[in-house]
């Protein structure tokens, strides 16, 4: 998996990085702290902006990004289109992330 840019209001806030679909995580850009403040929950309460991410909350952050995708048949159809499993959140966001409701 390559790094995926995460933008909010047109500003880069971080990257989703990781080599495994079950182990990716958000790495926050330093400038986001200056813009939104340390610990800001403007993105989500599950994804506060910190310089060093708390590893124990990585699953919460992955869940937040997974919930940006549709559910049920719609998710099945998207996964089938790019030939990945429905739990491959990073691949699905890489391909469809800009087009889903709630896109950030």
How are the SSEs ordered, and which strands pair?
Elements: E1 4-8, E2 11-17, E3 25-28, H1 30-36, H2 58-66, H3 72-82, H4 89-96
Antiparallel strand pairs: 1-2, 2-3
Fold and architecture overview:
- The chain is of the alpha+beta class and 104 residues long.
- The protein has four helices and three strands.
- The protein has helices at residues 30-36, 58-66, 72-82, 89-96; strands at 4-8, 11-17, 25-28.
- A three-stranded antiparallel sheet has the order 1-2-3.
- Strand 2 (11-17) and strand 3 (25-28) form a beta hairpin.
- The longest helix is centred in the last third of the chain and has 11 residues, at 72-82.
- The two termini are 19 Å apart.
- The model has no long low-confidence stretch (mean pLDDT 88).
TL;DR of this structure?
It is built from four helices and three strands, in the order E-E-E-H-H-H-H. The protein is of the alpha+beta class and 104 residues long.
Strand order of the largest sheet: 1-2-3
Uncertain stretches of 5 or more adjacent residues: none
Average pLDDT metric: 88
Through-space gap between termini: 19 Å
Structural class: alpha+beta
Helix percentage range: 25-40%
Structural shape: globular
Q: Strand content of the residues, in percent?
A: 15-25%
Largest sheet: 3 strands, antiparallel
Radius of gyration: 14 Å
Query: What are the secondary-structure elements, in order, as H or E?
Result: EEEHHHH
Considering the chains and any ligands shown, give keywords for the structure.
104 residues; alpha+beta
């Amino acid at each position: 998996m390559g790094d995926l840019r995460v933008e909010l209001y047109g500003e880069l806030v971080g990257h989703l990085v990781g080599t495994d679909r079950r182990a990716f995580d958000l790495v926050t850009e330093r400038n986001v702290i200056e813009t939104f403040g340390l610990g800001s929950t403007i993105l989500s309460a599950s994804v506060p902006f910190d310089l060093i991410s708390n590893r124990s909350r990585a699953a919460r952050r992955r869940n937040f990004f997974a919930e940006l995708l549709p559910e049920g048949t719609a998710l099945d159809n998207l996964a089938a289109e790019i030939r990945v499993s429905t739990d491959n959140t990073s691949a699905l966001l890489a391909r469809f992330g800009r087009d889903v409701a709630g896109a950030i």
